[in-house]
Design brief:
Blueprint lengths: L2 E9 L25 H13 L3 E5 H8 L8 H8 L2 E4 L11 E4 L3 H11 L3 E5 L2 H9 L5 E7 L18 E10 L3 E18 L3 H9 L1 H8 L6 E3 L6 E5 L7 E10 L3 E6 L6 E9 L4 E10 L26 E2 L13 H4 L8
Parallel strand pairs: 1-5, 1-6, 2-3, 2-5, 3-4, 8-15
Antiparallel strand pairs: 6-8, 7-8, 8-14, 9-10, 10-11, 11-12, 12-13, 13-14
């Protein structure tokens, strides 16, 4: 599964318009005012070496297609030979070699690219398309090279967005004359409410005692370790494979009321906050999940064929009622087994 990466030059006040010139903008070419230094040059070179494919909107594509075919050197060779995709309903005869035009549904096109390529799929510039990708929650990583300039005027990446978006900073590197390279991963929240036919004490023990966990949720092939205290580790073996082990840390524990726990993945930790409350009859768990885009939870049911489902916003609530607690957990009914686009719950 490929990873969609957006890379942008931006100013302190968020302007992303015409960083390299070539457009009718009063401040066109503003990146040339600041020296990016050898580390900044190395970052962009490595970023150009890594992708399996490049994606552009029409305006950015036209600007780069007018320049790079006439350039020489390693960067030019990479840009000119990599597979390129321009998202446009108006481009009919792309002039840049190795270019394919993507028309129609943006989500479907991007998901096909992620299935087609295993590595990075990098989007350069292309502000209008990036805004749509953000709205659709399709971006896996956002890289910003922030220049110490405030231009006042100009197009901004996050202008006119209705929905708030959260990001997790994964690295921050100063380069050149005051430039900051910031790498973020989007974080998506969703809310799930689960009604359980069990009293609060029984439900709490099911999540905090290894023996009760196995009794309620079914026997696991490996050991369950639950050190239920703030800072304590937890782990469980879901299968025989090296990737079938889940582990993490308890971030907050309030007895019989709240568990906040992280789960460790190669692409970054996820966080789940569970609030326990009594109901009539039984009890319920309110779960708030925070996940980075593209992460997949490895569970016993991950082998099930994936099916598309809608993302649950944090304001929404999906309530499940089942005859057994086992069928109302994260590994429960089909309608809650997959809770976000492209992944499994």
């Amino acid at each position: 599964m490929g990873k969609l990466v957006v890379t942008e030059y931006t100013t302190l006040d968020g302007v992303v318009e015409a960083p390299g010139g070539g457009e009718d903008f009063i401040h066109a070419g503003w990146t040339f005012r600041i020296e990016r230094g050898p580390d900044g040059v190395a970052f962009k070179l490595e970023e150009t070496r890594n992708p399996d494919a490049l994606v552009f909107g029409r305006v950015t594509y036209d600007g780069m297609a007018a320049v790079w075919p006439h350039m020489t050197g390693e960067v030019a060779d990479l840009f000119n030979t990599l597979p390129k995709f321009v998202i446009s309903d108006t481009v009919s005869d792309p002039s840049w070699n190795n270019t394919e035009v993507l028309r129609g549904d943006l989500r479907a096109n991007v998901e096909k690219l992620k299935e087609r390529f295993a590595g990075e799929i990098v989007v350069h510039g292309s502000t209008r398309i990036v805004r749509q990708l953000l709205e659709l929650d399709l971006i896996d990583e956002l890289r910003l090279m922030v220049f110490p300039l405030a231009l006042g005027a100009g197009k901004r990446l996050f202008a006119d967005a209705d929905a708030a978006k959260r990001f997790r900073l994964t690295s921050a590197t100063p380069v050149g004359d005051g430039i900051a390279v910031l790498v973020y991963r989007p974080v998506y929240d969703y809310l799930v409410v689960r009604d359980m036919p069990a009293d609060l004490d029984t439900l709490w023990r099911a999540w905090t005692e290894p023996e009760d966990y196995g009794a309620w949720f079914g026997a696991l092939p490996g050991t369950v370790r639950l050190d239920v205290r703030a800072g304590g580790p937890w782990s469980m073996q879901l299968g025989a494979g090296p990737h079938d082990r889940l582990s993490g840390t308890y971030l907050e524990v309030v007895a019989r009321q709240k568990l906040v726990m992280s789960t460790r993945f190669e692409s970054g930790d996820t966080v789940m906050e569970m609030t326990f409350r009594p109901t009539a009859p039984g009890s319920s768990i309110i779960e708030i999940h925070q996940e980075s885009c593209g992460q997949r939870r490895r569970t016993r049911r991950e082998r099930d064929p994936p099916r598309p489902v809608r993302r649950l916003p944090v304001e929404a609530a999906l309530t499940t009622t089942a005859p057994e607690l086992q069928e109302a957990t994260n590994h429960g009914p089909a309608d809650v087994r997959q809770l976000h686009e492209g992944g499994t719950a």
